[in-house]
Prior knowledge:
- The protein is 76% helix and 0% strand.
- The protein is an all-alpha fold.
- Keywords: Membrane, Transmembrane, Transmembrane helix.
Amino acid sequence: MAMSTTVGNDRLWRGLRWVVWGGAAMLLLLPLVAMQFTADVRWSPFDFALMGLMLALVGGAYELAVRVARSHVYVVAFGVAVLTAFLMTWANLAVGIIGEPDNPANLLFFGVIAVAVIGAVLARLQSPGMARAMIATAIAQAATCVAALVLDGVYVFVLTGVFVVLWLIAAQLFRTAARRPAAVMPPR
């Protein structure tokens, strides 16, 4: 049996497509359901549209990852990077990571995501370059750690430090994917 060149045809990743998109739909519906039972959750149509856009970007990133990946490790690395960006954006927009959401210092976190996106484009989504892009992103995130410590104290410093660790995990996974590009399983 011939080996597949990407993981997109693998039954595992095709099956996970339902989990990714179904999970995104469930996350989007959760606040709508909560609004029926409590006044503490009040989302506007804009909130739903913004969350829908963010979830669509995560789903689209999953689709892109399985189409370009030549190993399962690459898909996991891509997933760690995308979920890190998603969680950071969600937290930043919802409550603000440094102080309130409208604190100008929170724009630093969007700069971190810009480093990741620009790095991925420059790497042409190839594993070795993606590893370097994630290291650059971790360095940019570390700069936000320093800003967080100065502006908002130790708690936010630790939170942003967790994001640094997640970017470094993605970098190591991309590095592993670059070393083992033939780790693709044949279609079942």
